[in-house]
Each structure stands twice: as C-alpha cells, then as structure tokens.
Amino acid sequence: xxxxxxxxxxxxxxxxxxxxxxxxxxxxxxxxxxxxxxxxxxxxxxxxxxxxxxxxxxxxxxxxxxxxxxxxxxxxxxxxxxxxxxxxxxxxxxxxxxxxxxxxxxxxxxxxxxxxxxxxxxxxxxxxxxxxxxxxxxxxxxxxxxxxxxxxxxxxxxxxxxxx
Length: 164
Ligand SMILES: [Cu+2]
What we know:
- This protein folds into 2 domains: about 1-55, no CATH class; about 65-145, Immunoglobulin-like, CATH 2.60.40.
- It has 2 helices and 10 strands.
- It has helices at about 1-15, 35-55; strands at about 15-20, 25-30, 65-70, 75, 80, 85-90, 100, 115-120, 125-130, 135-145.
- A 4-stranded mixed beta sheet has the order 4-3-6-8, with no helix packed on it.
- The structure holds copper (II) ion.
- Copper (II) ion binds next to loops.
C-alpha cells in the first residue's frame, strides 16, 4: 500500500510535456507519466497481438493452380507451385483424357468433358504425368518448390511523440 501510494504520487506529480500530432496540426499536451505509459501500452497492443496471432506457424496460404486439357495437350505443359499447393486439371476437350502420374502417385481415371481432377503436392520435386488414352504424346509436369519460408509481418517500431 505504501509503495503503491508512493508510486502514484511520483507518477501523478512528475508531469511531462509532449507534443502530439493531430490531424488538424499539432498541439502541446500536458499529462502524467502514468497516462503516457497507458497510451504507449495501448498503442503497442495491436502490433503485439498481431505478432502473437500471426507469427507462429505463419506460412503463405496454399494456392490452387489450374491446368486445362485443350486439343489433346495439357495447358500449360509445365506448372511451378509451392509445396502444399493444389493443381486442378480442368477437362475442356470433347474427348476423354486421364491425368496419370508417372510415379503412381495419382490417377484421375477417365475424365469426360467439364470434369475436373485435383491433387495436392506436399513434397518438393518434379512430378511427370500423362494421359493414358493418348500416351506420352500428351504429358506434362508439375514442379513443386519448397513452401515459402515463414515471414512474420514487420512489427511497427513504437515511436515516442516527437520532441518539441
Ligand atoms: Cu488424353
């Protein structure tokens, strides 16, 4: 109680003058250290909370790349994605096609016009595939890069109100 009363007295009597910028110019404010600390804490809360909520395990959102079948080719022939991303093949030809992994990782089976097939690539590497119906003349590849590194957002630096 004594220390609290003492601290309160010190903070209350030790007044400081800061110049605070407002939208309509600037003005001089006279307030206590306690108020200054409260304002500093309030100002720091949002960036700190954002850092706590976003920084851990933050990774770029997974994306979906599209490949279409058109004229019995895969378009584009080669797609580069990040690990964790999905590729969706959109069957736009009148004839049937398949999306079949060269490494037996995935096989769409026969896809009729307007059907789609999706596969999520979680491991970096190059993945070839082809159409069983049309053979290796109709093939493509997916290049999977390592997922984007964790990059937490920059935390704004707290700045004291400008001097004089
Ligand atoms: Cu085909």
